Amino acid sequence: MAPSNSMQSRAPQLDRIFKAYDVRGTVPEEFNTDIARAVGVAFAEFAGQPTVLVARDMRPSGVELAAAFADGAMSRGVNVVDLGLASTDMLYFAAGSLNAPGAMFTASHNPAQYNGIKFCLSGARPVGAETGLEVVRAGAERELASPSASSPSRGTLSQRNVLDAFADHVVGFVDAKALRPLKVVADTANGMGGLVVPAVFERLPQMTLEVMFPELDGTFPNHPADPIQPANQKDLQARVVSGGFDIGLAFDGDADRVFVVDETGTGMSGSTTTALLAAAVLRSNPGATIIHNLICSRTVAEVIAEGGGRAVRSKVGHSYIKQLMAETGAVFGGEHSAHYYFLDNYRADSGLVAAMFVMAELSRAGKPLSGVRAPFDRYAASGEINTQVDDPAAVIERVAGAFSDRPQDRLDGLTVDCGPWWFNLRASNTEPLLRLNLEAPTRAECDDHVVQLLALVTAG
Asked: Among residues 108, 314, 319, 350, which one is catalytic?
């Protein structure tokens, strides 16, 4: 059968939507049901298991895309278990506890017109560009160009609800009875936190929970579900102060990330939270290995060393961190973007598990969160500054040349050690942006160096 013109035209665009560790694109311009079905075929063949789990977030396009993917997988004789609406960490939990590969339909923090897929193998093992995603892309491309015959025995479709089991799993990471009563407010930004956060807190009757924007609405009518951007935390910060809350939690769209706000309404960076969690984990795991990505604050490596642990630096991205955790035997990993990974969570990331640990530390300390966090706020950071440029690689080389007299590495983009301060400049794996992260001893120094770097980035 000769491929149709429409199928021929779809294959090249797979290069645009297959990223370093997931699939992501606009619907239907870049990502549609035909592509989703072909990816379902390819993933079923790659995973090589009798069952595949499928879940989706609240984006309207997820219903048809997930159904098309399931159809493709079933056409290869693979049984599909539909988990329905879920957070990404719930999908990882299911893949770990049920020992089956999974596909989560989500575009995480991206705007409403996007959708995508995060994959994992049985046991929640990661799938990224270096661990199978390129194989899936190639298989989907072949399927689009020349559809293959279906398996003689078509797979079945069934439904399963794992919300209660997931909530029990999350709460099990801490001694729930030792948690002191706290007033907690969570901004779920109309994302999947609206489903999973209440389910977890139902198991913590001593806690008082308020959820902001709990309605599942993938059009994001209140604000983008991207809490790494300070503007998207403003509603939560104001509510923490006005309501006298002990802690605020800001979840992204698929609820696998969480940013923490203290009782003064001041946000904690992912690095600060990573350092706090690392200190907590090392108390019960002396000498353990902990992973941190290369844009985390220097504080993280310092805290790990102070706690007697071994710090291992990683590229940015969940598939890289999970793989490195498996290779090194690490018990915990953290990213500046507020992904937190736990050995006992199948090495997968979970915003809710991280929130449990933070609340346990708050309970243990017996003082406000602003006091608990103080030892971990050591430097001034720029936050992630995104710039759209025509040629990211050329810009990186120009900046590297300007700092040729300073120690550099290319683990992920360009990292330059300027003594008291440092910066990383890297192309986004999910969006057409160049990302700058910079850290210095003081706010004034940080701001001055940011102006210097942005001038270089935007120079003609």
From this structure: 108
Dihedral in degrees, nearest 10, Cα atoms 267, 269, 273, 276: -90
User: Do 61 and 93 belong together in one domain?
Assistant: yes
pTM of the model: 0.93
- Over residues 137-164, the mean pLDDT reads 95
The span from the CA of 358 to the CA of 352, in Å, is: 10
> Which of 205, 234, 267 delimits the end of a domain?
267
Residue 75: phi, psi to the nearest 5?
Answer: -65, -15
Residue 147 is encoded by which pair of tokens? Answer: 């559809």
| Residue 419: inside a domain | yes
- Beta strands per DSSP E along 294-371: 310-314, 332-334, 340-342, 348-349
Whether 396 contacts 425, CB under 8 Å: yes
3-state per-residue secondary structure call for 122-176: HHHEECCHHHHHHHHHHHHHHHHHCCCCCCCCCCCEEECCCHHHHHHHHHCCCCH
Please check the confidence at residue 11 and state whether its pLDDT lies above 70.
Answer: no
User: Does the annotation mark 284 as catalytic?
Assistant: no
Best CA proximity match to 205, nearest among 225, 221, 188, 182: 182
